[in-house]
Specification:
- With about 110 residues, the chain is α+β, with helices and mostly antiparallel strands.
- It has helices spanning about 10-25, 35-45, 85-100, and strands spanning about 30-35, 60, 65.
- Strand 2 and strand 3 form a beta hairpin.
- Helix 1 (about 10-25) packs antiparallel against helix 2.
- It starts with 10 loop residues before the first helix and ends in a 7-residue tail after the last helix.
- The mean pLDDT is about 80.
């Protein structure tokens, strides 16, 4: 089999392929069978591209591809604030506390 030369790939195609694989991993809890990633790369037009070329946040074993930044446990956290308390509820709590002069029994 011919070796894959990453320099021959259009940077836009490479970026799209990387984005597609990262989205695939994120929607699958940060892990995916290696064959699914190979299929995604093939669909993106970079069949045979080494998985290592996807970047440092992706690593793999013999059968799985994983996202380094994948959370161990998924929580119902707000994507905007990173807090488990929704932004609108935070604002309501702040308003109640401020109106009580900082002495509200929340």
């Amino acid at each position: 089999a011919p070796s894959f030369n990453i320099e021959d790939v259009d940077p836009k195609v490479l970026k799209q392929a990387r984005k597609a694989v990262l989205a695939l991993l994120e929607t699958n809890g940060g892990e995916c069978p290696k064959q699914s990633v190979r299929n995604a790369l093939k669909q993106a037009g970079v069949a045979g591209m080494p998985i290592a070329a996807l970047g440092s946040e992706v690593f793999y074993s013999g059968t799985e591809v994983l996202l380094r930044s994948a959370p161990a446990v998924t929580t119902a956290q707000s994507k905007v604030t990173g807090s488990p308390v929704p932004q609108d509820l935070q604002q309501q709590i702040l308003t109640v506390v401020r109106e009580a002069g900082g002495k509200a029994a929340v």
